[in-house]
């Protein structure tokens, strides 16, 4: 594996673990504000991001590379509203998409043909992640400050498998 790709994959591992940490902080905020369904949705996101980090972790090792774990930034602990939480979720997913696109570009530039299909799976998944986050943001925006509307969204998100 080319050193530039190995370094970028290690950065991606950090980004994915940081994503999990961020979603857990958001879940704690939602739980603390008595939105258990939203907290559940965010915890599921955290779990998914942890799984992504481990897929990158194992991929680097499977390719004979070296995993170098790095410190994680402390995520925000408070938000002005649930809408702000989901604005941040959408922005965060778009950022992750950009990082994966950069990895794909490096893999192509270095002619690392084994990495390209691996990264393509994440590119496809990010389309789903961005849509899911945008859909929730749209719902939260539509109900505004309606307690009844937010309660319905909370119930809906709490059913996520």
Report on the architecture of this protein.
The model has no long low-confidence stretch (mean pLDDT 96). The chain has one domain (3-158): Up-down Bundle (Ferritin), CATH 1.20.1260.10. Helix 2 (36-62) packs across helix 5 (147-158) and helix 4 packs antiparallel against helix 5. It is mainly α and 161 residues long. It contains five helices and no strands.
CATH superfamily: Ferritin, core subunit, four-helix bundle
Helical fraction: over 70%
Could you say how many structural domains there are in total? Answer: 1
By CATH, the topology is: Ferritin
Uncertain segments are: none
CA-based shape = elongated
- Would you tell me the overall average pLDDT? 96
Largest beta-sheet characterization? none
Number of strands: 0
Distance between the termini: 36 Å
Query: In what range is the share of β-strand residues?
Result: under 5%
Q: Would you state the CATH class? A: Mainly Alpha
Instruction: Provide the gyration radius in Å.
Output: 17 Å
Q: What string, H for helix and E for strand, traces the elements in order? A: HHHHH
**Alpha plus pi helix count:** 5
**What structural class do you assign from the helix and strand content?**
mainly alpha
- What is the architecture at the second tier of CATH? Up-down Bundle
SSE blueprint and pairings:
Elements (H helix, E strand, L loop, with lengths): L2 H30 L3 H27 L19 H28 L5 H29 L3 H12 L3
Helix pairs in contact: 1-2, 1-3, 2-5, 3-4, 4-5
């Amino acid at each position: 594996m080319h050193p530039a790709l190995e370094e970028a994959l290690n950065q991606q591992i950090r980004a994915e673990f940081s994503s999990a940490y961020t979603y857990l902080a958001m879940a704690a905020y939602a739980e603390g504000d008595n939105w258990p369904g939203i907290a559940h949705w965010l915890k599921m996101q955290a779990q998914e991001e942890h799984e992504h980090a481990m897929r990158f972790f194992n991929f680097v090792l499977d390719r004979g590379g070296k995993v170098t774990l790095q410190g994680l930034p402390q995520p925000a602990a408070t938000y002005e509203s649930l809408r702000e939480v989901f604005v941040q979720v959408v922005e965060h997913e778009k950022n992750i998409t950009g990082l994966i696109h950069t990895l794909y570009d490096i893999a192509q530039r270095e002619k690392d043909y084994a990495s390209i299909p691996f990264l393509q799976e994440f590119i496809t998944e990010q389309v789903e992640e961005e849509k899911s986050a945008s859909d929730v943001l749209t719902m939260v925006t539509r109900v505004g400050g309606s307690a009844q509307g937010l309660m319905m969204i909370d119930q809906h998100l709490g059913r996520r498998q």
